[in-house]
From TrEMBL:
Signal peptide: none annotated. Its main location: membrane. One of its GO terms (cellular component) is plasma membrane. The keyword Nucleus does not apply. Pfam families: Glycos_transf_2. The chain crosses the membrane at residues 238-262, 274-295. Keywords: Glycosyltransferase, Membrane, Transferase, Transmembrane, Transmembrane helix. It is found in: Membrane. It is a multi-pass membrane protein. GO terms for molecular function: glycosyltransferase activity. This is Glycosyltransferase involved in cell wall bisynthesis. The keyword Transmembrane applies. Residues 8-177 form the Glycosyltransferase 2-like domain.
Length: 316
């Protein structure tokens, strides 16, 4: 089978400390893929500068000058990891057959790329890189990250366990992805929604060799929250459940208030204060949950996701 025209997309935010190392490792590896006949000679590597404040863009410019295999894309400001990936992919969609996204720090083992390309040859349209061993991550990062995947799955978000943004996509998948018009692209949730035949490649997560993580805890939590709220109206449904529960409890308290009033346990004014208070606070919460249900529906609609994606038709 013919080798694939591959584009590697690498989002970079303040990565001056590691970019040269990443470039030299990747270009050696890329050449070996070309020699093995896995990818074409005109396959490229695209660095996307996500509004870095350090010398990242200067380094990308310099790499582009010295090596015509490198493509540089510079964003006007910091748009975030997911948008940087989308920019690199969409800018180059017409010129390549398949696309792999990988972090600039090469924590996701680049040696899995060959296996991904093999799976693509065998017919997989999406190949997910899955972290097999995370012992290089801190205990805290591992536990929080893994519980994140479990929580997401429990809330009905179709994420692949321990898969981040190291994945191969065929051009066809990328075209369909373009029909998901939402601004908040939580790619690990959306790519499985696009469908098509997929496969997995397992690799061990490595240490970051230079520079620091661009995902401190605060950003990680924000990312997780974004992922949940872009996919699931479950948190809103909880309000409704809680509202119904509150209302039932309120009814019991109302019965108690009335009973106390009838048997004459109460001081004047207590019943007329407690009764509306309990009744209305119980029903308020339920009404809020109900409004939430409709807002949830509106939210699903405004995202304007495609209703279906046709893969093939026969006897058209
Ligand atoms: N990144 C980005 N924009 C941002 C934050 C991060 O493009 O606003 C890139 C970053 O340069 C790296 C990748 O996203 O290539 C993942 O970041 P990092 O390795 O710091 O995350 P971690 O591996 O610690 O989760
Ligand atoms: Mg990293």
């Amino acid at each position: 089978m013919n080798p694939a025209r591959l584009l590697l997309v690498i989002p970079c935010y303040n990565e001056e400390a590691i970019l040269h190392l990443t470039y030299s490792k990747l270009s050696v590896y890329y050449n070996s893929l070309k020699q093995q006949g896995l990818i074409t000679e005109d396959s490229r590597i695209c660095f996307v500068n996500d509004g870095s404040r350090d010398k990242t863009w200067n380094i990308i410019e310099q790499l582009c000058r010295q090596d015509s295999n490198i493509i540089g894309v510079g964003l006007s400001r910091n748009f975030g990891h997911q948008s940087a990936i989308m920019a690199g992919l969409e800018k180059n969609i017409d010129n390549f057959d398949c696309f792999i996204t990988i972090d600039a720090d090469l924590q996701d083992d680049m040696n899995a790329i060959a296996a991904m390309v093999e799976k693509h040859r065998e017919g997989a349209m999406v190949v997910y890189g899955v972290r097999g061993d995370r012992s290089s991550d801190s205990w805290f990062k591992r536990v929080t990250a893994e519980s994140f995947y479990v929580l997401m799955q429990k809330m009905g978000v179709p994420v692949v366990f321990n898969h981040a943004d190291f994945r191969l996509m065929d051009r066809r998948v990328l075209q369909e992805l373009g029909n998901f018009k939402e601004i908040n692209m939580f790619l690990r949730g959306i790519v499985p929604l696009v469908g098509f035949r997929n496969d997995k490649v397992f690799y061990n997560r490595l240490e970051r060799e230079a520079g620091e993580t661009k995902y401190p805890l605060s950003k990680m939590l924000l990312f997780a929250w974004n992922g949940i709220t872009s996919f699931s109206t479950f948190p809103m449904r909880l309000v409704l459940y809680f509202g119904v529960f509150n209302f039932l409890v309120a009814m019991i308290i109302v019965a108690y208030i009335l009973f106390s009033y009838l048997v004459g346990y109460t001081v004047p004014g207590w019943t007329s204060t407690m009764l509306p208070l309990t009744f209305f606070s119980g029903s308020n919460m339920m009404a809020l949950g109900l409004i939430g249900e409709y807002i949830g529906k509106i939210y699903e609609e405004v995202k304007g996701r495609p209703r279906y994606i046709i893969e093939k038709t026969l006897n058209e």
